[in-house]
Design a protein that fits this description.
Layout lengths: L1 H30 L6 H15 L7 E3 L8 E4 L17 H13 L3 E4 L11 H7 L1 H12 L3 E4 L6 H4 L3 H9 L5 E2 L1 E7 L5 E7 L12 H18 L10 H16 L4 E5 L12 H14 L3 H17 L14 E3 L10 E7 L2 E9 L6 E10 H10 L2
Parallel strand pairs: 1-6, 2-3, 3-4, 4-5, 7-8, 8-9
Antiparallel strand pairs: 2-10, 6-7, 10-11, 11-12
């Protein structure tokens, strides 16, 4: 009864505030737009990578691609309150099934940020409505096999002085939040190769600027935007911004030596620096060269559907350095989740969805490449 009364009262207040505040909020959003500046992105990524690879860093994780346990990297769950605007609700079954599968494999789990959506929901509703997924994550924490990295929507974990208390209540143990992690592959020759994992919002003035701007966006601007239901585009929902972010992440990674970059943030899977649409066009060219008419027909049928989802192609996409990967997200509208697997000497783009016949969550390998071959390919582009 009280909740209904508050909702009735809130409606006219929201309309009045929306009328007076829409223009200044949109103006502010444009001034600190999530469209990043190249120099800021490069500086932020370089600084973060340097910090992770210091000798005293606890964000450096050594891994043997032939002998070590698998690694699964997932991002962008955006856990909410299970209400109508909760992006994660439809994906929770697939997410929990995936975590149970990887935990049985004794995998190491890297949660790459925006796991909880504090731009839309408060800590108490998130904690109370996501106990099943938190319990699945806690299994990794108990094995000391999980790294939790913050993004722009869950920077609360990094900023709020009470965050350690909430994290301990959720997982039953203390959890240290990280800005990034580096997976280091050491070779008998004495050389190494780094897989740099971070959320991908670096250089974004809304959420990666100075401490005041980050605090203001997290505690003032985002909740106000949410209450007034003013939807300002972000990379997760704007194809142009996805393209800008992915392009800058690629450009930074392509300038590095012995490094592969994995991010989330845009909600768009990228494998070998290519989107799904770009990989389809490359496969179409191959099918035509090989005169494989069945494969050509299948690809031509799929391309229009992918064009509706995302219609941006990078220039010269057939000759990119395969140094950038993106996990996609764990909150697609149909409940599908995507992620990056490192296992059995391979890197894979995996998809978990509900099998139509059985009704159960199912794992599909969408893309796969030998890590050894990938590293050699990346180093050829020096």
């Amino acid at each position: 009864m009280i909740i209904k009364l508050l909702a009735i009262i809130a409606h006219p207040i929201r309309k009045v505030l929306n009328f007076f505040l829409r223009k200044p909020i949109v103006y502010f959003a444009n001034k600190v737009s999530s469209a990043p500046i190249k120099e800021d992105v490069f500086e932020s990524l370089s600084y973060l990578y340097e910090q992770c690879t210091r000798a005293d860093s606890d964000s450096l994780f050594e891994w043997d691609m032939d002998k070590s346990n698998p690694i699964i990297i997932l991002s962008d769950q955006h856990k909410g309150n299970k209400g109508g605007s909760d992006e994660f609700a439809a994906a929770e079954d697939n997410y929990v099934a995936a975590l149970n599968y990887y935990n049985k494999q004794k995998a190491y789990y890297i949660n790459l940020g925006d796991s909880e959506d504090f731009w839309k929901y408060n800590i108490f509703s998130i904690m109370s409505q996501n106990k099943r997924s938190f319990a699945a994550e806690a299994k990794f924490h108990r094995r000391k096999a999980m790294a939790k990295i913050y993004g722009n929507h869950d920077v609360f974990w990094h900023l709020d002085p009470l965050a350690p208390i909430y994290l301990k209540e959720i997982y039953g143990r203390s959890v240290r939040m990280l800005g990034a992690m580096v997976i280091r592959l050491n070779f008998p020759t004495g050389n190494h190769f780094d897989i740099f994992c971070t959320h991908g919002h670096q250089g974004d003035k809304q959420s990666d600027g100075n401490k005041f701007s980050v605090w203001f966006v997290t505690y003032i601007w985002a909740p106000l935007q949410s209450f007034l239901r003013i939807n300002i585009n972000t990379p997760a929902h704007d194809n142009r911004l996805k393209s800008v972010h992915n392009q800058l992440m690629y450009e930074w990674s392509a300038r590095q030596n012995n490094l592969l970059l994995i991010t989330g943030h845009t909600h768009q899977p990228v494998f070998n620096s290519l989107s799904h649409l770009e990989r389809l066009y490359l496969r179409l060219d191959k099918a035509r060269r090989e005169k494989n008419t069945d494969e050509e027909a299948r690809i031509l049928k799929e391309i229009p559907r992918r064009l509706r989802e995302y219609d941006v192609l990078q220039m010269d996409y057939g000759h990119l350095k395969p140094s950038y990967f993106n996990t996609g997200c764990c909150c697609f509208d149909d409940g599908t989740i995507t992620g990056i697997e490192l296992a059995e000497g391979c890197i894979r783009l995996v998809k978990w969805h509900r099998n139509e016949a059985s009704g159960q969550p199912e794992r599909i390998v969408a893309e796969e490449e030998s890590l050894e071959a990938l590293i050699n390919d990346i180093n050829k582009h020096k």
